[in-house]
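Researcher: I'd like a structural prediction for the single chain below. Treat it as a standalone chain; there are no partners to consider.
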Amino acid sequence: MRSLSTYALVISTSLLASCAVGPDYQRPEAPIKDRYLAQPNIETNITVGSTSNVVWWQGFDDPLLSDLVLRALSKNLDLAQSDAQLTQARAQLGFATAALLPSGNLSAQAARSYQSVETPLGQVLDSTPGYDRYGNAYEADLGASWELDVFGGLRRSRQAALAEYEASEAGVIAARLAVAAQTADTYITLRGLQSRLAIAHQQVKTQEELLEKVRLLYTKGLASEYELHQTEGELAQAKASVPVLCTGLDAAMNALDIMTGVPPGTHRQTLATATGIPHPPQLTSTGTPADLLRRRPDLIVAERRLAASSARIAVAVSEYYPKFSLSALMGSATALSSGNLFSSAANQSAGVLGLRWRLFDFGRVNAQIEQAKGAEAEALAAYRQSVLQATADVENAFSSLANREAQAATLSRGETALAAARQSSFMGYQKGAISLIEVLRTDEKLLLIADARAQAQTESARSAVAAFKALGGGWQPSQPIVGSR
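Model: Treating it as a single chain, here is the predicted structure.
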């Protein structure tokens, strides 16, 4: 046992002095610019009230929207799956950490036997004076083993498991961001559909009144058959838009129920009352493209998986080198019934210094290393692609937000102008200078531009949601909540 202790001391000293084989991971350079192209338009043109970026959905100033987002974050089943995946990753990390430590086991057994005297052995034993055909055997052992991580393969394996766990953590945050954004987007879409449905019903009413007047004029010979059929077609077109909007409205309500983890129809009564389209908040402290690397969780997922792939190369390289292990056994054993289990004569011990080396298997080791390098190259390309796509997501969201805001503002001015024109035409009708048909035609144009304005406002609010999602969501203006590791 003294020689075994000497070996253990020498190997442990080598272990402490050794370095892990394989490449040390370095975060790669990301293909990003210093500033977003559309950022000036956002900073100068979007002037709606601001909000804290941590709870960005509250900036829409809609209590029901905030309530639905919180319900989704606590009840959504996709998030439950992400949490379960995180638990699995945590277990894998625990397994990799435990591999670095010694393991021990305790075993014990007791046996009782009865020897037949009809067998050759039984006949010989039976001829011995005082032979007892009954026999007892007892044994108790305490064993321990430890794989010495001299060349760092186990440490690299733990680094890979840790990186995968961190990727799973970021994946949970990414899932929460996606659920919050999808819930807000669906809610805004629903409110936009309700506004457009109200306008569509008003369009149908206006077209019915117009058709009634044209039909009256047609019977008196004051309107042509072409005008009559044209008005009938316009009424049919207005009526046809209603079922389409109703279908979209039902789908949006059902989608919100699914997002919050409840059966379709649960929130229908609550959502039935139209409250208008939420106004998008101002985007504050949007940061630079470099901030996305620390803020956006899906980029952290891609970067951590790249780190795990790098560590797995080192795990494969470590197979070039020998593996050392220490094993020890202490126990006591006695056979038959003639001794005491814990007497000095029954004590037993053993110590083993193990060596395993794949001397004639380097071809497979080479293949494993090449496979690991290929996986790292794939992860690197995926990471850089994710960075490019993330930057494009922000640019697209900023551009859409600025342009939709401009469109909504233009349509609002047009709606105001048409409302004034409608008032003038109605006053002319009261004085007998303008026919009622012209007034109804003005109403029709006013409703059409109102529908376009509602669509623009809806898309503007949805673009704000997309911008928050693209920027990573849920950060303090001075510090991201998801730091790089």
